[in-house]
Amino acid sequence: MSLADYYDEIEPVTMLVVGFVLFVIPEPATSALGAGLMLLGSAWWFYEWQR
């Protein structure tokens, strides 16, 4: 297995990490945006996992 096999998982995981960072910032707008990014990133990650 090479790193190229995991290339499709970089973007969703990055979106999850950015969403988490925005979620923990104590501002309602960034928390809502972070929750949305985590939801979208997890759906994208599960989609890529099944492919």
Topology:
Blueprint: H1 10-24, H2 28-50
Helix pairs in contact: 1-2
Principal-axes geometry comes out as elongated
> How far apart lie the N and C ends?
16 Å
Work out the number of β strands.
0
The main sheet comes to: none
Proportion of residues in helical segments: over 70%
Average pLDDT score? 88
Please state the structural category: mainly alpha
Based on CA atoms alone, the radius of gyration comes out at 12 Å
The tally of domains stands at 1
Q: In percent, how much strand structure appears in the residues? A: under 5%
> Poorly predicted ranges (pLDDT <50, ≥5 residues)?
none
Summarize the helix and strand pattern as letters. HH
Total count of helical runs of at least 4 residues: 2
Keywords: Membrane, Transmembrane, Transmembrane helix
Transmembrane segments: 20-47
Organism: Haloarcula rubra
Protein name: PEP-CTERM protein-sorting domain-containing protein
Put the structure in a nutshell:
This protein has 51 residues and is mainly α. Helix content is 75%, strand content 0%.
Q: What does this protein look like?
A:
It is a single chain. By secondary structure, the protein is mainly alpha-helical. The chain has one domain (3-50). Helix content is 75%, strand content 0%. The chain is built from two helices and no strands. The chain has helices at 10-24, 28-50. Helix 1 packs antiparallel against helix 2 (28-50).
Summary tags:
2 helices; single chain; mainly alpha; membrane; 51 residues
